[in-house]
Design brief:
The chain is α+β, with helices and mostly antiparallel strands and 731 residues long. The protein is built from 18 helices and 22 strands. The longest helix is centred in the C-terminal third of the chain and has 62 residues.
Length: 731
Amino acid sequence: MTATLAFGMQTTPASLPMETLAFCHWLLGEDNTLDVPGSGEDAGGAVLRNGHASGEAYGQEYGRWLRLLRVAAEDGYSQLCRTVRREAALLAERSMPLWDQEGRADPLSKAVGRSAARLSAMVAMAPAGSDEAQKLEELPQLLIHELVAGYVGAVRPPGDTERRLTARVAELAALQKINSVVNSSLDLSQVLSHTVNVVAEVMHADVAAVFLYEETGRLVLRAERGLNPDAVGRTSLALGEGITGWTAQYGKPVAVADSWLDTRFAYVPHLMEEPYHGWLSVPIILFRAADSTNKLVGVMDIETRAVKEFTPEEVAFAETVAGQIAIAIENARLYGLTDDQLREKVQQLQALQRVTATLVSTLEMSEVLTTVARQAAVITGTDMAGIFELDEDQQTLKIVASHNLSPQYTQIEVKVGEGAVGLAVAEKKPIVIFDAQSDARLNMLPAFKWVAEEGYRSMFSVPLISRNRVLGGISVYTRERHEFSRDQIALLFTFANDAAIAIENARLYEETRRGLEMKSTLLQEMHHRVKNNLQMMASLLRLQLRRTKSPEAAQTLAETHSQIESLGAAHDLLSQESFGRTTVGEIARRVADIAVADMLPRHKRIEIDSSGASGVMVASQSATLLALVLNELICNAIIHGLEDRDEGHVTIRARELAKTGALIGAPTTKVEIEVRDDGAGLPEGFSVENSHSLGLSIVQRLVNEQLKGRFEITNATGGGTLARVVLPQEG
C-alpha cells in the first residue's frame, strides 16, 4: 500500500506524502526489529533495532528523516501531524479491544514510549545550539500529542477512561523527563537538585524535598524546592519522627489532606513549612535483586499550600518516581564513595611519602623509633602504637618505643607466636584482632590483664622485616571496636617495610659510630704511647748532647734529636686532627721550629717560611714519614746550603697537581712539596746518587721506597738550592 523513496533521493514537495508516511511507519513501528516498508537489506534499507538503526545505515536513516523534517517545517509540520494522527488511529483500530482493567491502552503506552525514545534520539543528533536543534526540541511534544489524539479519537473510550488515558500519557511524558534529568549526572547534589525541581513541576506541587537515610541512622534533608535552603544538610529526623520518619520506618507512602491535623506531623521551625497543608511522603527504596532485599535510601516529600486529597494515581506516580530516583541516588552515592576513596588513597600515599622522608632524615635510633611509633598511629587513624624489638636468642618481643601507650603496658614481654604481634612476627604477615578483650588468641596470655586494664579493643600488628630478617613488629590499638580496612592493613604493612629499613640503617649507624669511637680511643692511646716513647728518647739524646765534648758527636746527636722530635711532632698532630689527617704546612712549621732549636747556631738568623704549604692535606700513612723527609731537607738547608752565611731564608711550598687519568682504584691526585734556600747552591756535577750525604740518601729512600714518590734536588733559578718531592695523595 505504501512505498518509500530510495535513501539517496532528495525529498521534494511532490514526494513528501510518501516520505511522510514512511517516517510515520518508522516512528510507530511495533517490533524490536523494524523493516522500513519498501526497502530491505538487499535494497539498501536500514534495519532498526530498539528504535535505532545500526552503523552506517543509521546515519543514512537519520539524514533521510532530517531532510524530510526540514521540508515539513515549511508548513509548520501540519501535513506530518495529520499523517501521524491518521496512522495512530489505524494503530488503535488494529489493537482494539486491548484495554486493561484500569482503562489504560497498553498499545498506546508502548507506541508513545517508542516514539518518544526515537524522537529524543533524533533531537540529540542535531548540532547543539543550532536553529535546527531549537526547531526539533518542540517536535516530540507536538507529534506525541497528535499520536494520542488520533489513537483516542479512534477508540472513543468513555469519558472517565479518556481522562485517565490522557493522564497516563502525561505521566509517561513526565517519567521520561524525570528519568532523563536524574540520569544526566553522577554528582549526588546535582541529581537531588534536579529531581526536586522536576517532581515539583510535573506534580504541580509547591514543595518537593528529599531526605536521605545516612549512616548515623537519621534522615538528613539533602535537597528541597519551596523550603528554607539553609536547612539543607542541617536538618535531620529520626526514624518514626514526623510523617517523613513514619514513612521511612514502615516503608509505606503517607498521603494526608492537611498535615497540621495529622498526629504524626512534627513541626520543624527551621524548615519554614507553615504555609503548606497537603502532604504526600513516599519511601525511596532500592530493591536488590541479588539477595531479594530492600534498602532504605530515603524519603521524598511533596507538599501543597492548599488542602489536597491526593488520588491513588498520584500516589502511584510518586512511588514510580521514587523507584526511578532510588537507582540514580545509589549510583551517585557509589560514584561519590569511589571518588572519596580515591582521594583518601592519594592522601594516604602522600602521608606515607612524608613519613618515609621523615624516617630517612635521621639516623639516631631513639628518634627513628619514636617517629615510627607516632606515624604508625597517624596513618592508620588509631589511638596508640608500639614498636616491639625481637630478641633472637630469647625469642621474645619487648616494646622499645611507643605512642600514647601507658608506662605499665610498655613493660610487657611477648613470646614469638603468642598474641597479635607474636603471631605477626612468627608468620611474617599482618594479624588483625577485632575485639582484644574477647579474642581467644589473647585471653590466655600473661599480657591479657594489661590489655583488659588499659581498655584496648581492636588492634592489628605487622612484622618489621629487613633483608628477610625479622627485627620485630608494629602494633596499633583503638579504644573502640574497629574494623580495619584492607587499605589500612596494606598501608601499615608497606610503612613497616620502610620503617624496618630505617631502623636497620640506624642500627648500623650506631654500630659504626661505636666502632669508630673505639678505634679513635685506641688510636689516641697508641699516639700517646708512641709520643711518650719518642719524648723519652729525645730526653736521653738531649742529655747526651749536653755531656759530649766532641763537635762531630754533638752534630750527630743534634740531628738524631731533631729527627725524633719531628716524629713526635707528627704524632702529636695526628692525635689532634680528625680522622688522622693534617696539612703539609702544619708539619713543616713544627719540624722547622724543632730544626731551628736543635741545629741553628745562636749567631745565625735564618727565617723559615712554611705559609705556602698550608691547605694541602696528607693522610696518616704519609704524615710521619713526611715529617722525617722535611726534617732532613730543612736541616740540610741550614747546615749545608746556608753554611757560610749568617742570614738566609728557607721557603717551603706545597700544592696539589692536576688529576691524571689513572686506573680505577689508583690515586689520581699528587702533592708537590718544594724546600728552597737562598744559599750558595749545589757544587757543579752534584748528584744524590754520588754524594756522601747520609741525610739526602735517607730522604731519597723514604720518598722512593716508602712513600712511592719522586725526589730531586737541583740549583734554584736565581741562586740557592731547590729540593722537590712529589707524592701520591691518599684518600
